Amino acid sequence: KQWYQRRVAITAGIPVENFEIKSKVMSLSWDPKGPRFAVIQGEQGRTDVSFFKIGEKILPIGKTLTNKKCNCIKWSPLGQYCVLAGLNNISFDGVLEFWDIGGDAPTLMNEASHFMVTNIAWDPTGRYVCSSNTYGGHSVENGYNMWNFQGSKVFEASLEGFIQFQWRPRPPTLLREKDIKDVKKNMKSYTRDFEIKDKLSQSKASKELIEKRRAVYDEFMTYRRKKEKDLEVLKLQYSELRTEVVEEEYVEETVEFFMKKEKSTDCDSALIPLL
Question: How far apart are alpha carbons 65 and 71 in whole angstroms?
Answer without folding.
Answer: 13
